[in-house]
């Protein structure tokens, strides 16, 4: 068994990376040194410093209940990227096998969690300005040249699917603002072995694309909707577009996609918690899944525990009106606790990341629009797959890089108060 250093980048308080042109950066090469990642074979991936900024500590998870046994801090530079592999590993296994196993070691973390679900952010742009997602002052977006190209997205998707990923979800920003969005879905929908292609959208520009997306192979759609009241919608999104979203919902239901339409509702105390039962009523005659999401802290969203309301409080409120509420059976890797009001067409669920996390069955990985792999939504450690691709790395070396990151994944994320003090990207730059 060998140990090698995982390649990580660390965001600053605003989640913004250094934007100095690469040609003006002094590149320093260093060989891999022992660290805390166990590999089943020799890893030959090197690292390259692309920033002369001061060193920062990669902070351990402050949640002391973690089963992780490594408590020391690892000093890293503020931005690392993969260099050319130093040499070929004699024991390395070619990743692109014609008959790959359902789960390969580089998609399994040190706690035995198999990662079969990949979320890819297609853009940092959005046509809304939701207060819990985007800071009021906006964000500094990367130049287009620093975002993943269509070919790079497809290559990464094919690599992950060949190694056991079964479902891909496309996020943003708002994915529909990407000019080649439908064409990209068509290419992803043709990947052999991919069982589900989903997307999360605000519904503003989605309706006219629905027929083409269904033909492209999209199997499931989530629409974000936090209120059914027009003035509130304008207040939280900073755009007057509720009618367009409701029209999109009706159109999506009529399209009859293979999987049930889902609505994502972030519940904020004092803003929309009084509408919870209105959303439940929405399921009476619609075969739809309303998911109430606990308010989560991210960079720039001014999270306040006074605005937080737990799912148990929401369930109690719903139960005061709807007596016959059925608890539905959980499925493996579910993030939502599912319920159904007896007699309703649709169902409701609660995503309880803050009050009752589901880290033990997490099977999700994320790729940001600028090509960084995040193994945890709430983690601030990232690794650049974009830079590895543009350095000419082959799939085997990409797999080594991905595997090191996945094995570094912690047993669980920190609690909401610790998260509110930690550094992370704004949600719009993560991709949900």
Automatic annotation (TrEMBL):
A GO biological process held by the record: Mo-molybdopterin cofactor biosynthetic process
Domain Radical SAM core: 110-338
Pfam families, A to Z: Mob_synth_C, Radical_SAM
Reactions mediated catalytically: GTP + AH2 + S-adenosyl-L-methionine = (8S)-3',8-cyclo-7,8-dihydroguanosine 5'-triphosphate + 5'-deoxyadenosine + L-methionine + A + H(+)
Presence of the UniProt keyword rRNA-binding in the record: no
Pathway: Cofactor biosynthesis; molybdopterin biosynthesis
PROSITE patterns xref list: MOAA_NIFB_PQQE (PS01305), RADICAL_SAM (PS51918)
InterPro entries: Aldolase_TIM, Elp3/MiaA/NifB-like_rSAM, MoaA, MoaA-like, MoaA_NifB_PqqE_Fe-S-bd_CS, MoaA_twitch, MoCo_biosynth_MoaA/MoaC, rSAM
CDD domains from the UniProt entry: Radical_SAM, Twitch_MoaA
Cofactor: [4Fe-4S] cluster
Keywords of the record: 4Fe-4S, GTP-binding, Iron, Iron-sulfur, Lyase, Metal-binding, Molybdenum cofactor biosynthesis, Nucleotide-binding, S-adenosyl-L-methionine
EC number: 4.1.99.22
Region of interest (Disordered), residue spans: 56-75
GO molecular function, one term: metal ion binding
Coiled-coil regions listed: none
UniProt xrefs under NCBIfam families: moaA
The protein's name: GTP 3',8-cyclase
Organism the protein comes from: Sphaeroforma arctica JP610
């Amino acid at each position: 068994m060998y140990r090698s250093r995982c390649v990580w980048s660390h965001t600053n308080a605003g989640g913004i990376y250094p934007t100095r042109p690469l040609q003006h950066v002094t590149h320093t090469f260093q060989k891999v040194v022992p660290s805390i990642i166990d590999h089943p074979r020799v890893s030959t991936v090197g690292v390259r410093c692309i920033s002369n900024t001061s060193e920062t500590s990669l902070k351990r998870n402050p949640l002391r209940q973690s089963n992780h046994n490594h408590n020391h801090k690892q000093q890293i530079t503020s931005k690392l990227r993969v260099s050319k592999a130093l040499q070929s590993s004699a024991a390395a296994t070619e990743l692109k096998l014609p008959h790959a196993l359902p789960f390969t070691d580089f998609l399994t973390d040190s706690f035995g969690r198999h990662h079969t679900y990949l979320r890819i952010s297609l853009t940092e742009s959005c046509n809304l300005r939701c207060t819990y997602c985007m800071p009021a002052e906006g964000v500094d977006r990367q130049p287009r040249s620093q975002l993943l190209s269509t070919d790079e997205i497809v290559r990464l998707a094919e690599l992950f699917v060949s190694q056991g990923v079964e479902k891909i979800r496309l996020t943003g920003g708002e994915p529909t603002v990407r000019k080649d969005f439908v064409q990209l879905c068509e290419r992803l929908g043709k990947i052999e072995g991919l069982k589900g292609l989903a997307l999360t959208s605000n519904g503003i520009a989605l309706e006219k694309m629905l027929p083409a997306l269904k033909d492209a192979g999209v199997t499931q759609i989530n629409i974000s909707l936090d209120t059914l009241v027009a003035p509130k919608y304008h207040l939280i999104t900073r755009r007057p577009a509720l009618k367009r979203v409701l029209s999109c919902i009706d159109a999506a239901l009529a399209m009859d996609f293979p999987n049930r339409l889902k609505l994502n509702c972030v519940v904020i105390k004092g803003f929309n918690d009084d509408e919870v039962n209105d959303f439940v009523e929405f399921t009476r005659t619609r075969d739809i899944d309303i998911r109430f999401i606990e308010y989560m802290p991210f960079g720039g969203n001014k999270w306040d525990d006074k605005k937080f309301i737990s799912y148990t409080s929401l369930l109690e409120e719903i139960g005061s009106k709807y007596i016959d509420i059925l608890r539905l059976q959980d499925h493996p890797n579910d993030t939502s606790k599912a319920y159904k009001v007896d007699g309703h067409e649709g169902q409701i669920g609660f995503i309880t990341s803050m009050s009752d996390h589901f880290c033990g069955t997490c099977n999700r990985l994320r790729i940001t629009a600028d090509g960084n792999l995040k193994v945890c939504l709430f983690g601030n450690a990232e690794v650049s797959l974009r830079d590895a691709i543009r350095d000419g790395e082959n799939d085997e070396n990409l797999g080594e890089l991905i595997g090191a990151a996945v094995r570094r994944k912690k047993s669980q994320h920190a609690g909401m108060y610790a998260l509110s003090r930690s550094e992370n990207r704004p949600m719009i730059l993560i991709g949900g």
